[in-house]
Amino acid sequence: MSLQNSKAANKFAEFAAKLGGQIHLRSLRDAFATIMPLYILAGLAVLLNNTVFAWIFKGKTLLQVQYWGTLLTNATLNISGILIAAMIGYCLAKNRRFNNPIAAALVSIAALVTMMPNTVSLIPDGAKKAVNVSAVLPFTNLGTGAMFAGIIVGLIATEIFIRVSNIKRLQVHLGENVPPAVGQSFDVLIPIIIVLAGFAVVSTLLNNLAGMNLINLITTVIQEPLRHIGTSIWGVIILYTLGNLLWLFGIHQSVIYSSILEPLLIINITENIAAYAAGKTIPNIINVSQVTSFGLLGGSGSTLCLLVATFLVGRNAVTKNVAKLSIAPGIFNINEPVIFGYPIVYNISLAIPFVLVPVMGIVISYVATVLGWMSPCVTMVPWTTPVGISAFLATAGDWRAVVVQLLIFVLGILVYIPFVMINDKVLGKEASQTMETPESAEA
């Protein structure tokens, strides 16, 4: 039975398509895609501060120059919880076709701040002991520590806000003669009051009855357990493999990767960036840069290895032409021409290496990092960064990571080679059958 006609495969593809269309997961994917440039900028700022500037400048001059990178880190990484809450509110409202998505983003930000503690413990510069400070919002509650809270609060606050805003009795209409912006703001005036007042009640009860706040509660009870499971080596292998399996049915792997796995991996890399900037021990080996740099060589399925294998042993004219056309975008990890032109979709001949090679890259890089043969990834690089450069940048200039990446690349080519030969034979038989069919019909 072919992969395309398998009932189980069709059911899996149908389920995956529905999962990818789920509005909250789609909104989550859209939000992280929107905010991605800021994370890349944060990684670049940290990379320059801790490597390039440290090579060039010394002493007081170095500190003065590094102030530039610190400002960028504060404007991106250290307010990432607030940023993701706003983007989720906006994207979810857009996907719900709500007519005032800006108001939804506004409510998401305000709701998240409402759930933060009014008194925090901070260590003043030069001091050793922490002191309690009131009426401040530290980066610890605005940045990476609040990202998961921002996701949850953004989703919940936006859903409630949209539902309440659709109650006509709660809408305040000022007539047709007022500016549109003023009219829209009064339309959602009462819903905003209701939603934020409700979140304030919850925050007050948590503080007065349990002595805690939602940020710490979500981090302790939900974020850390989920992240440790999802971004463990086995969790990543399972989720990333499922994502790549979707390509075999013509469904983009972002259905699982971008919606479920990538947000957790992004939290990991933001923690690494913050730790690297502060000169602390890097906490997470598995992160978004590690997965993309070592498990995405040429795109999903590490198809750059497939293209090179095709040049080396391929005999089929069609696939060799596809490889020639796909090599340029493949260098930048864009592989839709390979997915649909080679093709990968519904091609059982290439299913095994397409799934196996990315897993091999993730495992090898993980083991190499654990053994100290390469540094962990501490910056976020664009997923379009070519092989060799991506590993170097992701690890803040560790040449050993480039060696590991090139080793994975060579091994990936070797894994693909026998399957390219098998695929050529299958295509040859299919071509022979196609040529024989008209003759049989005439007879």
Automatic annotation (TrEMBL):
Topological category with respect to the lipid bilayer: Multi-pass membrane protein
KW Coiled coil (keyword) present: no
Protein's UniProt name: Permease IIC component
Role, per record: The phosphoenolpyruvate-dependent sugar phosphotransferase system (PTS), a major carbohydrate active -transport system, catalyzes the phosphorylation of incoming sugar substrates concomitant with their translocation across the cell membrane.
GO terms for cellular component: plasma membrane
UniProt entry tagged with the keyword Hydrolase: no
One GO MF term: protein-N(PI)-phosphohistidine-sugar phosphotransferase activity
NCBIfam families found in the cross-reference section: lacE
Superkingdom to which the source organism belongs: Bacteria
Keywords recorded for this protein, A-Z: Cell membrane, Membrane, Sugar transport, Transmembrane, Transmembrane helix, Transport
A biological process from GO: carbohydrate derivative transport
Main localization (coarse): membrane
Transmembrane segment boundaries: 31-56, 68-90, 102-123, 143-164, 185-206, 226-248, 260-279, 291-313, 351-373, 402-422
Protein localization: Cell membrane
Residues annotated as domain PTS EIIC type-3: 8-419
Organism: Companilactobacillus kimchiensis
